[in-house]
Design a protein that fits this description.
This protein is mainly β and 169 residues long. The protein is built from 3 helices and 12 strands. The chain has a 7-stranded antiparallel sheet with strand order 3-2-6-9-10-5-4. The longest helix has 8 residues. Belongs to the non-flavoprotein flavin reductase family.
Length: 169
């Protein structure tokens, strides 16, 4: 143990979350096909690359998320990296509702996971491993196909949406 290291009980969760918000991140919607061929999707900022060989990415899902069981049993995923014009899609998939897909143009990927039209990038993935991550489950996924287009990413910073243009880029 590191001397003077605070214990988890000494960390204020709200202050911790606020400090984490200082790390700007892109926004993705992870999609899959669940039981009875139902399409599922959820907004997340916890997506990043892990390995080039094999090509692995990770994302994490809250244990409280209604779609966690469907994600755990899915045979394929798609990570849809949102374009800066897709804030409405991020908002929609961030909420628990039954009509997330209404008016969202999408097509099935190679292995059935939905690809959202207009996304900046798509990563089609197969399950690789999952791990305990405290109040989240960490999913490692092997990339089997990907595509990317020109455009600008939708960014989340300090609890709000941003665009690269907002930062003077």
């Amino acid at each position: 143990m590191i001397p003077n290291q605070p214990l988890a009980k000494d960390i204020d969760p709200r202050a911790f979350r606020q400090a984490l918000g200082h790390f700007a991140t892109g926004i993705a919607v992870v999609t899959a096909r669940g039981a009875n061929d139902a399409v599922i999707g959820m907004t997340m900022t916890s997506f990043n690359s892990v390995s080039l060989d094999p090509p692995l990415v990770l994302f994490s899902v809250a244990r409280s998320a209604w779609s966690l069981p469907a994600m755990q049993s899915a045979q394929s995923y798609a990570v849809n990296v949102l374009d800066d014009a897709q804030q409405h899609i991020s908002d929609r998939f961030a909420r628990a509702s039954s009509d997330k897909w209404a008016d969202v143009n999408h097509r099935p990927g190679l292995h059935g996971a939905p690809l959202i039209e207009g996304a900046l990038a798509h990563f089609e993935c197969a399950p690789y491993a999952s791990h305990d991550g405290g109040d989240h489950v960490i999913f490692l996924a092997r990339v089997v196909s990907f595509s990317a287009t020109q455009g600008e990413p939708l960014i989340f910073f300090r609890g709000r949406y941003c665009r690269l243009a907002d930062a003077g880029a």
